[in-house]
Specification:
With about 180 residues, this protein is mainly α. The protein has 2 domains: about 130 residues, no CATH class; about 50 residues. A two-stranded antiparallel ribbon has the order 1-2. Helix 3 runs parallel beside helix 5, helix 4 packs antiparallel against helix 5 and helix 6 crosses helix 7.
């Protein structure tokens, strides 16, 4: 190949990737909740057809991973366990792509995704450190969410969170065992 052909191919590949990032960012923008953004982009980040000699699938996955990592920076985990779970989910996706990049000999991509993995892991670890853990709450009999919130936190205004976590048929009769924030 001549130098001008190689340059044209490199420019076309860069333009394709820029378009893919624009597309994944548009997908991310369709949802305001970062958790929904992450769910949507996870589907794209795992795209892997049986054969892909042109590396188009890898470019799609990588663009989705970049947008997914941007979404994770806005994600507000509700508990320590939530942050740790999200960190494991995203770093696993990044690890898979890092291995693919290494197998393809794509050193720059490999290094970029290793750095991105470190940033995402560090961000979610930092968020996890300031969050309460989830504990199992048990009571001898069903009782109102307001009473449970006051007993657990000395704050009846937190009843809505208990109801959201336990999902009772009636908030006046909370289950005798459910998960709630420790503090």
């Amino acid at each position: 190949m001549s130098g001008s052909t190689t340059t044209a191919l490199t420019t076309a590949a860069a333009n394709l990737f820029a378009g893919l990032v624009t597309l994944t960012e548009a997908i991310r923008a369709t949802a305001t909740d970062p958790a929904v953004q992450i769910r949507l982009l996870t589907e794209l980040a795992t795209y892997s057809p049986a054969e892909d000699p042109t590396y188009t699938a890898a470019a799609c996955r990588r663009a989705a991973l970049i947008s997914l990592c941007r979404a994770s920076s806005n994600y507000a985990p509700s508990s320590y366990q939530d942050a740790v779970s999200m960190r494991a989910q995203i770093t696993s996706l990044l690890d898979s792509e890092i291995i693919i990049a290494a197998d393809q000999g794509a050193t720059a991509t490999y290094n970029a995704f290793r750095a991105l993995r470190f940033q995402v892991s560090n961000d979610l670890t930092t968020k996890a450190g300031s969050l309460p853990s989830i504990v199992v709450v048990t009571s001898p009999a069903p009782m109102p969410a307001l009473v449970m919130a006051y007993r657990l936190y000395a704050d009846a205004s937190r009843a809505d969170d208990l109801v959201a976590r336990a999902n009772p048929a009636d908030p006046n009769f909370m289950p005798v065992s459910f998960e709630a924030l420790a503090s």
